[in-house]
Amino acid sequence: MPFINPNNVEVVILAGGKGERLYPLTKDRAKPAVPFAGMYRIIDFTLSNCVNSGLKKIYVFSQYKSHSLNRHIQQGWLSFFSYPMGEFIYDIPAQQRIGNSWYEGTADAVFQNIYSLQQDMPGYTLILSGDHIYRMDYEAMIAAHERSGADLTIAAHAMIVSRTESVS
What we know:
Layout: E1 9-14, E2 35-36, E3 40-41, H1 43-52, E4 57-62, H2 67-77, E5 88-93, H3 106-112, H4 114-120, E6 124-129, H5 138-148
Parallel strand pairs: 1-4, 1-6, 4-5
Antiparallel strand pairs: 2-3
């Protein structure tokens, strides 16, 4: 596996979802901030995957009821990062930087914050969801991306749906 310098990768975690299907759990918080197994939150899966992959330059783009998510990140994750070593985790709430509208979807959240990535000019930008529950080695995915020479790599997991189940 080629060596991927984690300092050359910045992570964007999209964490703005209302999570309407999880109501009432999302009554007072965004879906990534919903408690999971006691003191953990849904976003902890994505953050743990990042830290375990050696990726410690992280932007969290939040929009909807972000206070509890921001508090959880400050109280639970800051100790994993060394700001003097160039590591960071920044929660960036919606700011209407491109106009008068809030984020109009995930692509728009990245577009409205592209200046943050342009300041550092990372070799790679890894865009992740903050409300999925999974385990993944991002370093292996980035290495596969680099080997392939692709412009874009998307990770997906095949789902088999029986004919009796409906997909919406």
